[in-house]
């Protein structure tokens, strides 16, 4: 009987060693000293997962933008991507090249991302942006339908395509949303931000924009009453012919300083006082009339819309357009929760 029991004892012993003692020995080294580090790693992992989930569950389409409607004097909350559609539709002709529309969508989204970052506004409490040129022109679906009537579906299809192609994307510099300024038409060059606003921003430099020369708004002529010009500028214009002496030009070939009747003005001052289309102008007195000829349309800083359309017609992508007008920038996904 004892001979028969010996193999059984061996088997039982091996079982205990294999399935009870060995696992215990393997676990012991990690059960004390390493337990805290394991917990730390787990917490880090969970935090990382949480951060990722926040970004995935909060795309720009879920952000509400409080827009102050200047006519109704009320705040309208609009989803981010719907807001971008309303801005692109209001700020750029829907028949423009698709890549130009995409570039405009990027600028519009970046503008409001910058506004969200600032957290300051002079608008009524609760509003982030207005619907006018003080920020970006915005029209909602009902307003666009009334404006476009029978062409609404066709035009909105193009706008929607441009916005969806860039959904969630903004233009950044050093990881932050830029001041994505834009304007209608250049005089062949864009303006350096320091020359127009006084603030030097590295991405808003003067660049060439030859595509504007064929734009319908490249040059314009207007006749102003002499007395109106004298009153608004506080000068007396007696001599016929060219008015004023240009003493300095900007990097963008616009007027920086001009002397009129012994008074020195900046080009921006003259533009604002006389409501001119740009700061690249000439003034000519003929009798009781002052004829003004301007080149370009708008402040000239940032992206030229007609220039963007010209670049797109030449086969340039929206990324190339954006990086031409905004120097040293990156196109990135907007992550509002960071």
From TrEMBL:
In this protein, which residues make up the domain named Sporulation stage II protein D amidase enhancer LytB N-terminal? 71-173
Q: Which UniProt keywords apply?
A: Membrane, Transmembrane, Transmembrane helix
Q: Which GO terms describe its cellular component?
A: outer membrane-bounded periplasmic space
Query: Where are its TM segments located?
Result: 7-30
The beginning of the lineage is: Bacteria, Bacillati, Bacillota, Bacilli, Bacillales
Asked if Zinc is a keyword of the record, the answer is no
> What is one Gene Ontology biological process annotated in the Swiss-Prot or TrEMBL record?
sporulation resulting in formation of a cellular spore
Q: Does the keyword Transmembrane apply?
A: yes
Descriptive protein name: Stage II sporulation protein D
Q: Which stretches are annotated as coiled coil?
A: none
InterPro entries xref list: Bact_Sporulation_Assoc, SpoIID/LytB, SpoIID/LytB_N, Spore_II_D_firmicutes
């Amino acid at each position: 009987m004892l001979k028969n029991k010996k193999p059984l004892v061996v088997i039982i012993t091996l079982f205990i060693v294999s399935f009870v003692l060995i696992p215990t020995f393997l676990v012991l080294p990690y059960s004390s000293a390493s337990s805290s580090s394991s917990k730390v790693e787990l917490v880090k992992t969970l935090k990382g997962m949480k951060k990722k989930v926040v970004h995935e569950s909060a795309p720009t389409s879920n952000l509400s933008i409080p827009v102050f409607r200047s006519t109704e004097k009320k705040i309208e909350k609009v989803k981010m991507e719907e807001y971008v559609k309303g801005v692109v539709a209001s700020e750029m002709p829907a028949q423009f090249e698709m890549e130009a529309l995409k570039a405009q969508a990027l600028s519009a989204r970046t503008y409001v991302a910058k506004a969200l970052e600032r957290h300051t506004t002079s608008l009524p409490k609760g509003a982030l942006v207005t619907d006018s040129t003080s920020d970006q022109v915005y029209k909602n679906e009902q307003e666009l339908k009334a404006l476009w009537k029978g062409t609404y579906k066709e035009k909105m299809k193009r706008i929607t395509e441009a916005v969806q192609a860039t959904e969630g994307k903004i233009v950044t510099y050093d990881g932050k949303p830029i001041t994505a300024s834009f304007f209608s038409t250049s005089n062949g060059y864009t303006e350096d931000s320091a020359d127009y606003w006084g603030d030097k921003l590295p991405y808003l430099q003067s660049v060439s924009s030859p595509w504007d020369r064929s734009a319908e708004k490249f040059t314009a002529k207007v006749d102003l009453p002499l007395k109106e010009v004298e009153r608004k500028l506080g000068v007396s214009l007696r001599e016929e012919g060219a008015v004023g002496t240009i003493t300095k030009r900007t990097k963008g070939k616009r007027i920086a300083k001009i002397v009129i009747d012994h008074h020195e003005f900046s080009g921006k001052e003259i533009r604002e006082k006389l409501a001119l289309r740009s700061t690249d102008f000439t003034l000519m007195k003929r009798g009781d009339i002052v004829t003004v000829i301007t080149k370009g349309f708008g402040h000239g800083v940032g992206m030229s819309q007609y220039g963007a359309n010209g670049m797109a017609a030449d086969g340039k992508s929206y990324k190339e357009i954006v990086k031409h007008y905004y120097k040293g920038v990156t196109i990135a996904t907007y992550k509002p929760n960071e």
